[in-house]
Design brief:
Layout: E1 6-9, H1 11-14, H2 17-26, E2 34-38, H3 39-51, H4 57-70, E3 75-76, H5 93-102, E4 106-108, H6 117-120, E5 126-128, H7 131-138, H8 140-153, H9 158-168, H10 172-181
Parallel strand pairs: 1-2, 1-4, 2-3, 4-5
């Protein structure tokens, strides 16, 4: 992997604020990857934020504006035409189509079942639910720096931030990986 590693972030990983913040920090200079998404992915993210996480339309519009400002190159266009040719789960064909259109190597998602290998292999794309672990193994110093910055912004220690992440149960492998590396107790 290199700093031009193109990664499509699925709506399910963009909806949670802490995870989204962590991923996007790793995509800021110096970056570990280039984030990509489509209007459909962001629309789905905003819908989840409003319907399941009780965010207001003003809050979600602010998020969308901030994403456009911070990552203007992230938006993938002209992908819809590819959807009918794809064999992964119909509700996530737009995600794979966006990945194909922008030549992404990876889709970060919690919905691995919607992206079977036989649907991805022809396009040399992988779907990962342990993306942050692989990023930590790729450059533990940079991930630690970015995670420390995130914790500091929230007036937390890295250990407290990892414990907070760990308590959500969303990313147990990620939280355990740096905790083990730095002999921290979760």
């Amino acid at each position: 992997m290199n700093k031009d590693y193109l990664v499509v972030l699925d709506a399910c990983v963009m909806a949670g604020g802490a995870l989204r913040d962590t991923l996007l920090r790793l995509a800021e200079t110096p970056r570990l990857f280039v984030p990509k998404w489509s209007d459909d992915i962001i629309t789905e993210t905003l819908r989840v934020l409003q319907t399941k996480l009780n965010k207001t339309s003003e809050q979600t519009q602010h998020l969308q504006n901030e994403l456009r400002k911070a990552f203007p190159e992230a938006w993938v266009e002209n992908y819809k035409i590819l959807e009918n040719q794809l064999t992964n789960h119909p509700k996530d064909r737009h995600v794979l189509a966006a990945a194909i259109r922008c030549s992404a190597q990876t889709i970060v998602t919690f919905n691995l079942k919607d992206f079977p290998a036989n649907s991805l292999d022809p396009f040399d794309i992988e779907a990962l639910d342990h993306f942050l672990v692989s990023q930590f193994h790729l450059d533990d110093a940079l991930v630690t720096l970015k995670f420390t910055q995130q914790a500091n912004k929230l007036n937390r220690t890295v250990e407290h931030q990892l414990q907070t992440f760990h308590k959500t149960g969303t990313l147990p492998l990620f939280t355990q990986t740096p905790a083990d590396a730095f002999s921290m107790k979760l």
